[in-house]
Amino acid sequence: AAPPFPEICLPELSHSASPPTWTPDPPTPTPTPTPTPSCSYIELVPEMDCYVDQSNPDQAFGGDLFLKVFSNSGSDDCYAYMKFNLDDLPADAALVSSTLTLNFLNIPAWGKINYSLVTSEWNEETTFNTQPTNQPNYTSVNANESSVTIDAMVPLSYWTTNPMNNHGLKFQYYYGNSPKRREILSRESMAPPVLKVWYNSQEPKPTPTPTPPSENDYLMQLYINQANFKPGDSFLLSFIGKNQLSFEREANIWIVLDAYGMYWFYPSWSSQPDYEIWTFEGYEYISESILHFTWPSDCGSAAEIRFWGGIEDPQTHKWAYDMVSFGWTS
User: Fold this and answer.
1) Cβ distance 231 to 293 under 8 Å?
2) What are the angstrom distances between the C-alpha of 240 and each of 154, 220, 260, 277, 325?
3) Fewer CB in a 10 Å sphere around the end CB: N or C, the chain?
4) Is the peptide bond before 267 cis (omega within 30 degrees of 0)?
5) DSSP states of 66-85
């Protein structure tokens, strides 16, 4: 058998990959009515988001799970952009309140980020060399918790008053301790940015009947920082899990390295089944770096190596799971 990953490189094996037999049952939720609030309310996730990277000035990062906001004193900086579509907000809406919630992958050190209004067009193919313009005035935000909620009434009021000028927000690192970096979970992630808007309208809107999650409903997502590694590259594997329910409960967390059908289990990285037990608060998401190291030399080459990640409900033994694949060359 191959030694534990990543201390010694895995051998090249004949490809006979077959994923672990984790087949979650489909949920069977029962719709229940929602009480009518005192005013109307909507939640919006970005219709588009991306980040730009000074060290890769011609590369677009519109489909990543994280929006990098880095500062290196004008060298290798990263800026994030996001835009919200307000078409679902009635034309006669009288705004009452608005917040924007950002979720971060981790908090490496104390720090603040800034945001400002974007003043020109952009899309998810935008790069550092083609990034849009923005207003010179910034608002600073303490970014020292895994989830931060900020008052969004000023930008929302501007966008509703000037809908043709709704180009979204730009985020950049302001100041703090090293390492000066934040990674905002993007719209492609399980915990995307959320713009909440409370408003009054002349015409009452019917209250939708939501579909609540099933009693075993977890969400999870794996993230790997690139698809192919060379000696000296930084390797990062992260795991995000989310409890869809309002009460605290435990879950079994499985991370499995799949080398063409041969499995090694986190956290021991042995070939024997192993897992961790995490406790989730109601509606809580937890992110954790599972592996972070510099890729060694003399590893040969391989492709389609997989990591499987799963959240198991210990009561029902149902699953939510994800998979990422990668390879390496010498």
Assistant:
1) no
2) 32, 5, 24, 14, 16
3) N
4) yes
5) EEEEE-STTSS-EEEEEE--
